Amino acid sequence: MSARKLVMIVYRLLQLTFFGLVIADVSLDLGHPWWWNFLPIVLSYVILVVAHRWGGAPDSPRVAREPLEVDPPVTGRWSALNSPADRTPSHGTHAYGQTYAIDVVAEPEPGARPGFRPLWPLARRNGDFPAFGAPLLAVADATVVRVVGDQRDHLSRTSLPALLYLMTVEASVRDLAGVKRIVGNHVVLDLGDGTFALYAHLQRGSLTVREGGRVTAGQQLARCGNSGNSTEPHLHFQLMDGADPDTARGVPFTWRGIGVPGNGEIFEVPAPATPSQPT
């Protein structure tokens, strides 16, 4: 186990200890000063700061790298959100190797994707979004090194109350539960030369590959879903320098024939003439 992975485990255990102490103190009246309950959470952040100073920023890339050119992971008409073309880290954090990550949503035609609503409806079914169930393709010839596909696809979080719930409650709980609950159903491909591709928020039951298997560029891996820490059906795609998002650092990418679409930019990818089949 790497030192960075150990730091993350200890961090989460201390966070859970904090919540446990608060609940126990309220329920059992442990009798110690109230501030005692906050010692684990303070210690957890001290550990992160020490790890940062000792080993460099724990999640940011160590050295600048040229973007790796790979094929697009989708076909059809899509638009980009949280793009590294606009800022890095694209999602506001280097954590989980997502410095250069991008989110894409299907836009088969203008207005086909339901937009954000302040109050109503609170949530929408996944079938209302054209991205749900869209095929996701291997961006290069690769080896499958991680497959998780048993998490449910939840309703959308595209109203203000639902988004506040996601940001203040659900995201925190998922972070404590570990990276699996953040990225949801996912596939990690080993592209070679120390580079790995992560496909996150996949549809439950749609994965067509197994760990250890080989895939070819353009081969279908799974379908787009809404599992994990997700507001609506979409693909979260990123390159990283390790197979474990908990300890990996981001790697920049560019999609062949497209580049890196900016936030709100529409891009189209023609379907392959002869789609590859799983092996």
UniProtKB/TrEMBL annotation:
Alphabetical list of InterPro entries matching this protein: Cell_wall_metabolism_enzyme, Dup_hybrid_motif, M23ase_b-sheet_dom
PANTHER family linked to this entry: MUREIN HYDROLASE ACTIVATOR ENVC, PEPTIDASE-RELATED
Signal peptide from the UniProt entry: none
Domain named M23ase beta-sheet core: residues: 178-242
SUPFAM superfamilies reported in the protein's UniProt record: Duplicated hybrid motif (SSF51261)
Name the record gives this protein: M23 family metallopeptidase
Transmembrane regions: 34-55
Sorted UniProt keywords: Membrane, Transmembrane, Transmembrane helix
Organism: Streptomyces cyaneochromogenes
UniProt GO molecular function: metalloendopeptidase activity
CDD domains: M23_peptidase
